[in-house]
């Protein structure tokens, strides 16, 4: 719980510093130290967001100590953070509040593995798109070929395997059979049909 000061005279401002060394990446813990002047130990320290003014954390300094450590867990949505701190402590019998510290700005970098994952996901999406496109093209080509095959069929389903229609009417390929062969076959069929007919009796006498 934040204490309320009863005096109008602010205490000297603390100093806020970054304790995490090196580059800071998304998802990494960030350590900040808020330090009051040495003659103001055992204070209660508050960390605030500079953009919203929201109080983020509160920490009590140990006995005889004039600084505290704040730990912030950065999220993957953060690009940077800006914070400041202040403290309050007893001066005599009264609680006094300090002025605000310097604003500390921390840049949060994107890890290399994020770029790798994004690249792999993009590559997988590209490969999947190509495979789907190839599949659709092949299926469309196969469908068109089947339609062309259906349109090219001209033989009646009732035709026998010897390429006749069962009524002594032969079907020929105009490119493979000559006209003479067709004529001879036709005459043979006519002779065969005439021989199979019964002769009609003829009489010269009138009844």
Question: Please, could you describe this protein's structure?
Answer:
This protein has 207 residues and is an alpha+beta fold. It has three domains: 15-110, Immunoglobulin-like; 111-153; 160-194, no CATH class. 29% of the residues lie in helices and 24% in strands. It has helices at 112-152, 179-196; strands at 15-18, 29-35, 44-49, 55-60, 67-73, 80-91, 94-97, 104-107. The strands form two sheets. Strands 3, 4, 6, 7 and 8 form a five-stranded antiparallel sheet that branches. Strands 1-2-5 form a three-stranded antiparallel sheet, with no helix packed on it. The longest helix is centred in the middle third of the chain and has 41 residues, at 112-152. It is rod-shaped, with a radius of gyration of 50 Å. 14% of the residues are buried. Keywords: Membrane, Transmembrane, Transmembrane helix.
């Amino acid at each position: 719980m934040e204490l309320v000061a009863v005096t109008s005279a602010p205490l000297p401002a603390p100093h806020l510093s970054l304790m995490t060394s090196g580059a800071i990446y998304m998802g990494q813990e960030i350590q900040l130290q808020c330090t009051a002047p040495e003659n103001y130990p055992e204070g209660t320290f508050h960390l605030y967001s500079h953009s919203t003014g929201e109080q983020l954390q509160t920490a009590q300094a140990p006995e005889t100590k004039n600084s505290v450590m704040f730990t912030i867990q950065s999220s993957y949505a953060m690009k940077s953070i800006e914070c400041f701190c202040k403290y309050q402590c007893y001066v005599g019998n009264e609680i006094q509040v300090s002025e605000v510290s310097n604003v500390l700005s921390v840049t949060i970098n994107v890890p290399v593995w994020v770029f790798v994952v994004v690249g792999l996901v993009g590559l997988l999406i590209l490969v999947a798109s190509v495979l789907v496109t190839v599949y659709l093209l092949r299926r469309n080509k196969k469908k068109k070929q089947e339609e062309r095959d259906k349109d090219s069929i001209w033989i009646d389903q009732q035709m026998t395997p010897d390429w006749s229609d069962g009524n002594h009417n032969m079907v020929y390929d105009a490119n493979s059979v000559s006209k003479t062969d067709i004529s001879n076959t036709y005459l043979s069929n006519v002779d065969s049909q005439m021989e199979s007919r019964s002769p009609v009796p003829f009489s010269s006498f009138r009844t």
